[in-house]
Amino acid sequence: MITTVTANPAIDRTIIVEDLKIGYVNRVIRSRVDAGGKGINVAKNLKNFGDDVIALGFIGPNAKYIIDCLEDEGIKTDFVKIKNETRTNIKISDISRMEVTDLNEYGPYVSEEEIELLKKSIFKYAKESKVLVLSGSLPQGVPKTFYKDIIREVKSGDLKIILDADKEALLYGIEEKPYMIKPNVQELEDVVGKKLESLEEVIEEGKKLKDSGIEIVAISMGGRGSVVITKEGIYRVMPVKVEVKGTVGAGDAFVAGFAHGIYKGLPIEETIKIAAALSTSVVMKEGTRAGTLEEVNILKDKIGIERIER
Ligand SMILES: Nc1ncnc2c1ncn2[C@@H]1O[C@H](COP(=O)(O)OP(=O)(O)OP(=O)(O)O)[C@@H](O)[C@H]1O
Ligand SMILES: O=P(O)(O)OC[C@@]1(O)O[C@H](CO)[C@@H](O)[C@@H]1O
């Protein structure tokens, strides 16, 4: 089984506009609502691959919609029901600039008792899982060491932990050496505390993290693809040129591709291709949506992948 944890789910409201003008009245062409939050997006992608996945996290009284969406898709869920409301994140997609602006709320305040309930649940499901995905920001009241504490508690040879977080949650999490991390360049810059101007610098810093004991360091670079640093080698992955309709959740699809490959024990190059293809299929869609197996099968062979160092 694969367990995904979304401490800070979101009702994602995507608003499609043309030529957004800040400070003016803008007309909305169309809008849509999706169940969002990073771990939830990972779970949606994994389900489309037919993997056995369960989604955990905190859920507020206003967000039954999220549970219903996941259950409609056949995804198992076991969320901790909290007193305060789940956030709504606004995604403004400007189709003339092909640009998405994210307005993400901090999320609800979560109590100590609610945090303990989620921790217990994660510890329970981790015992039955091969892969554990810890993804996204932490809502208010949750200590920045949340992921670190979980990794320390559940880490074992049999469980592969993927951490996709930012800022302090990532910094602390890294201290416990998860199996894999997936920072984007900005997140990696925050970890190393400096601007990374060239691909060489990105690789250099990624290598240091890998050498510190993290097996896979996958650095995503948006429309420039990614660099994946593993013990098998360093891979430069080039994206496919497609019509981009929305980039929200591309990173989560990338993570899901790795979770799938690791779960199935696939070779690293095949895993990377699936991850890149899955993220490509997501950018071809409006809103926060997952990719499908059929889309990946079409896109996979178009992914350019080059081993640049052993
Ligand atoms: N404009 C694009 N064109 C083609 N592929 C893209 C584009 N943007 C993203 N991708 C694909 O998605 C992957 C992950 O994207 P990105 O680096 O934006 O993740 P992220 O910053 O974690 O995103 P998010 O937090 O919104 O999920 C990239 O490595 C690439 O394969
Ligand atoms: O505020 P966070 O937790 O960092 O990110 C939340 C979020 O932007 O991430 C997903 C896309 O990756 C969206 O579904 C969601 O709204």
UniProtKB/TrEMBL annotation:
Cited SUPFAM superfamilies: Ribokinase-like
Domain of life: Bacteria
Domain Carbohydrate kinase PfkB: start-end pairs: 11-291
UniProt pathway: Carbohydrate metabolism; D-tagatose 6-phosphate degradation; D-glyceraldehyde 3-phosphate and glycerone phosphate from D-tagatose 6-phosphate: step 1/2
Reactions performed catalytically: beta-D-fructose 1-phosphate + ATP = beta-D-fructose 1,6-bisphosphate + ADP + H(+); D-tagatofuranose 6-phosphate + ATP = D-tagatofuranose 1,6-bisphosphate + ADP + H(+)
Gene Ontology terms, MF aspect: 1-phosphofructokinase activity; ATP binding; tagatose-6-phosphate kinase activity
UniProt cross-references to CDD domains, sorted A to Z: FruK_PfkB_like
GO cellular component term of the entry, any: cytosol
Protein family (similarity comment): Belongs to the carbohydrate kinase pfkB family.
Protein name: Tagatose-6-phosphate kinase
Protein's organism: Thermoanaerobacter pseudethanolicus (strain ATCC 33223 / 39E)
